[in-house]
């Protein structure tokens, strides 16, 4: 394009467009009815399909003017003065308002704010078919936005009105009825009341109707089924499942959108009541239909991957079936296409994430192609949703123990973009990135140094001080995994970065989930060689005190478990360490309170019982000189008799530790009687 | 006879056919054809479907009066649709857009690709008429924002604007945009969108039936010699040549 000319063109275009725009606005308020009608039509033709124009007319206040014209015309029509001119004004202004509301939330808001919604609704009871059609179309546009007012199904007259819409001969009107349901039906009470009113029967009959009727009916049906097994049961049972077979049939429809909506409806039904649609042929059909729809160039293709996700998420059998139908390869093939729009990109990544969430065969297929490179690139994408999805996908793949063991993920090419994205402005991206890091730093090949070299630890420590609890939680989780079976040099570096006081304050975080992770981190810190036990005694033992305080007030079993393992690990140390643990366990005599460890030993959670007994085992190891005295203190606190009562614990793990403890008690008692 | 034996016998027959082609005489063939019952009403419907989809409204009206076949679409809408199509074919794109919006404002509001192609056609017409200033202004104001929304639109826009850079458009690499076929392409896209919005198939059924006939004959050619239809316009049965 010649640059010089285009610059001048910009200047002129700006001028002409502004004057043309304000001219239309001006003429909308003309007293000459013909001028007004012409301006309405002009406005309509300017904004349809054109988001930029919608926005500029919106800013100039076009919506309230048009709403006022509609209100006036409706009033005149009510006064029995409807003539073809008035009718034309109504149709044109309804079309203008509908277009402002079409796929444009700011427009929907403006139409609602201008008070036009009740006037548009009134058009539906008009006798003229064209007026009804224009009104229904505009109201439908509004109902396709989440900003639309919620329709109250619980009011009887509203339900009657809804049924009259669904029963209408006009496709636009019955489609509107379905849109209202899709938009407003949220609770199980509403689902039930719609079912009782016979709406499902009506919607099922629309499945035999025209293209648009089929589509809107499928959407509404899915809304009414969602998470309501009672309604699903009645639907499947009615007329020996005839309606269900029509939906299954529509999965093979020739229109892509209908195929997608029918699949989504069946997926909702299946996820609501897993006992239905277990037939292998239907499952395979769904998987293949969605994989094939990925190729659709439009919105259907964008949504197909999300539908696939909801079909396979958390379901190993479905993931396996999708794998057998080459889902990984097909998703990868679509991922490689140029200029993917962000929504489609996100969807494919999330579908891959679900594919790789459970099965190792999927992960190896994924890793054997070059998908990982594309995913790592996507971590730096412009769209936050894509970045987040890329991290979620990566996290899923990084569950592969096989590849973790091989250290496949700890390379600079992978680590550098991940550490960079820890600074992301979007919290959800940060959390997702922390999720990946948590997985990949569980490393068995001493390649953690790459992560540390890339500045990862500093970032994680910084994030553990975040205001956002989710970020603190995930940062600690990553640090915890980084600490897992780390060599002492690595631990030392981590501890220097973290400091005892920061860890102590995180153990006392207001969020229980954060407390749990902080305790688990300390547990890994003091695991292993004796020298690491010393960490909890730094800065006058503030860490150990914090652990003790948290155990005293622990409400969640998980906190008790992690805290007890910290004590248990410390109790493997020297005499001095064991004494310190004992001091934490046994409250000072003057308080008279029961030791919290008794509560843990009596807990319903077998994991907590195990951790508690284990601590006692470590304290009473008969090889250490102070063990005899410690046993006496434990006996005095009622702990020995409690453990005695646990010889037949239902949990084998607990039973085994109890046996060890009792054996040690016996040895110590024998020592005592010999020496006395 | 058990089902098993029936299957075996049929397989054997097909096997035999495969080795030496079966010959079907004209007599046999016509007898078979006469056995197939096709309802007159169905034939009429097929023709009506063709007339309606292709927009031959007068012919459709005559057929309805003569045969009582009801069209599956309001005939008045055909007139409107044809007016839109014709407007694009004559290069009156703005007029066509207004007509589509009167017909159903949803069509262009929910179909960005079609909307872009119509605007692009408007730009082409401006360039064709030598209105350079106006064309540039239009491209900037109306089309550039669409290009920002969609990468492939941007590429198409760049190609179209490139027309302005050439003195002799008949000899330039993007010259075919000025060809009449581009108008026809856009017109048929609008036509299809309107039909879809009216829940009507965008293609008539008759051509696909003819395609099926050709496919079926070529399948049969491998197995048998029979009176073939070679000329579809007359549908005369040619005698089998052995």
From TrEMBL, chain A:
Cited Pfam families: Arm
Main location: cytoplasm
A single GO BP: proteasome-mediated ubiquitin-dependent protein catabolic process
The keyword Ribonucleoprotein is assigned to this record: no
Location of this chain's protein in the cell: Cytoplasm; Nucleus
InterPro entries linked to this entry: ARM-like (IPR011989), ARM-type_fold (IPR016024), Armadillo (IPR000225), ARMC8/Vid28 (IPR038739)
Cross-referenced SMART domains: ARM
Keyword Transmembrane helix in record: no
Cellular component, GO annotation: cytoplasm; GID complex; nucleus
Keywords, comma-separated and alphabetical: Cytoplasm, Nucleus, Repeat
The name this protein goes by in its record: Armadillo repeat-containing protein 8
Organism, as annotated: Dipteronia sinensis
Taxonomic lineage of the native organism: Eukaryota, Viridiplantae, Streptophyta, Embryophyta, Tracheophyta
UniProtKB/TrEMBL annotation, chain B:
Domain of life: Eukaryota
One Pfam match: LisH
UniProt-listed InterPro entries: CRA_dom, CTLH/CRA, CTLH_C, LisH, Ubq-SigPath_Reg
Domain (CTLH) ranges: 77-134
UniProt-listed PROSITE patterns: CTLH (PS50897), LISH (PS50896)
Spans traversing the lipid bilayer: none
Name of this chain's protein: CTLH domain-containing protein
Organism: Dipteronia sinensis
